[in-house]
Amino acid sequence: MMSTVSKKLLQKPSFGIIMLDTVFQRILGDVGNPETFMFPVIYEKVVGATPEKLIIDADPGLIKPFIAAGKELIKQGAKAISTSCGFLALFHQELVHALDVPVFTSSLLQVHLAHAFLRKDQKVGIITARKQSLTREHLSAIGISHYPLAIIGMEEAGEFTKVFIKGEAPLDKELCQKEMEHKAMQLKKLHPEIGAIVLECTNMPPYSKAIHNLTGLPVFDAVTMIKHAYLTLHT
């Protein structure tokens, strides 16, 4: 017999997430782990869309399969859609115009919100998987290129890059957390004027609490975005 809780869960609208083609473990807190959310999520993987192809190559050939994945999620009942990589900000406009439900491509959309509560002398800090790959085109595609930003990347972090960019498993969660904490403190040291931090990568949310505890700053990530977006569905 189905429990009352299960019945209520099934009655809630589903949130669709377009997934990259990855092999690493999706730990609790990662958008690819359904246990991260207290509401129904459905996934559609884009075969061949590896992190390297999206982040390093910025392959425009991925637009069509991502749109197809979004349409498939809508067929399955998704009432809103997000993705599993912040670098999909580059294709934000294409996805928004092609899909008939609200689309939240990248956690970087939250830069708008973060900037809104900062003082004029403050900046929004961004921790990204790879700084040199996060171009002005990515920022312009979601309308945040004009904000005062301080950006730092994880490209020198061995464990993070090995697992999340190169796709080599398994993940050493403790080591990855130390790398994330180190980058957060480095960002704050280099840019003491930051008043909030936005984590670009969807694999970073498991470490958001640790980053907040270290820096004392509000931390936005892909999970905070998806949870906020889900509430707009008037559940």
Largest sheet: 4 strands, parallel
Question: In order across it, which strands form the biggest sheet?
Answer: 2-1-3-4
Distance between the termini: 24 Å
The unreliable regions are 1-7
Query: What is the name of the CATH topology of the largest domain?
Result: Rossmann fold
Q: What is the CATH C-level name of the largest domain?
A: Alpha Beta
Strand content: 15-25%
Class of secondary structure makeup: alpha/beta
Number of strands: 8
Report the helical percentage.
25-40%
From the alpha-carbon coordinates, what is the Rg to the nearest angstrom?
17 Å
- Counting DSSP H or I runs of 4 or more residues, the number of helices is 10
Categorize the overall geometry.
globular
CATH architecture of the largest domain: 3-Layer(aba) Sandwich
Average pLDDT for all residues: 93
The overall number of domains is 2
The secondary-structure element order is HEEHHEHEHEHEHHEHEH
Oligomeric organization of the protein chains = single chain
